[in-house]
Amino acid sequence: MRRNSSQHHLSDETIHKIGLYKFETSKQELSIDGEIKSLTARESNILSMLISNTNELTSY
Hints:
The chain has 1 helix and 5 strands, in the order E-E-E-E-E-H. It is an alpha+beta fold. The longest helix is centred in the last third of the chain and has 12 residues, at 41-52. The model has no long low-confidence stretch (mean pLDDT 84).
């Protein structure tokens, strides 16, 4: 699996790009091709942790 992650900061909002997906941390939303999925707080925290520890072994 190839992971291409980048970040964009818009005021208080951080948008992470993961392949074709976009993760908006402040809104806790994951989107692809205009389809938006609201994440739970736990899902959002796990995804944020994985993004911040790319290519590293992590535990939750």
